[in-house]
Fold D-beta-hydroxybutyrate dehydrogenase.
Amino acid sequence: MTNKSSSGNLSGKTALVTGSTSGIGLGIARRFAAEGANVVLNGFGDAGAIDTLQADLAKEFGVQVVYHNADMSKPAEIEAMIKFADDKLGGVDILVNNAGIQFVANIEDFPIEKWDAIIAINLSSAFHTSRLALPGMRKKNWGRIINLASTHGLVASAGKAAYVAAKHGLLGLTKVGALETATTGITVNAICPGFVLTPLVQKQVDDRAAKDGISNDEAKKALLSDKQPSGEFVTPEELGALAVFLASDAARQVRGAAWNMDGGWVAQ
């Protein structure tokens, strides 16, 4: 039974969201399902929990939900995932490149294998998904590519060389994609979130609480006060609503944008 909140605006479309078994990716996948889109989930996690997630999403919103476990650092697995989406759901109409990892160290101490992994998953994977999804979008003359960058695609922080380089690169890829599709029904844009309370950020909070001998709540406030003037975390639901807008007809002239949702971070 379709959830009453489903507006059906994207009914018949298929949204592939990488890194969508939790956090930001799941929040975005849920919003697309609520709009009537069929969804391809991707990411790591307990197989039983992912099966349950699939079934729950399909039941709640009355859409088709499938899952592919492609490792986003491996081009051959990405290719298999796009083929799977074609075979199961008739192709990818909306591609959300969300998969990402993080590692913190100064440049001279940064492990080479960590650099390679972050560039592969946070940047190269978006190139591979885009190059494989674009031919199908061009055939239909309709498509949306939404790259989840970061405020770190716009500004830098010490210790995050690979992440910042990858996210800046992702914004460059977004702009090139937007120019190459400018006269078509395909748009390419990026969303640049500030701090979202994902497991990745919760770990930073926990580490800070332990290091400074303060409570978890105090550590959250301290983390936000460093960067995010609103003093509040961005939520996956808010990012999902922005992604749905970028997929809508109202946003058809939004092309090559780096849309920050960051509580004022980059306004400083």
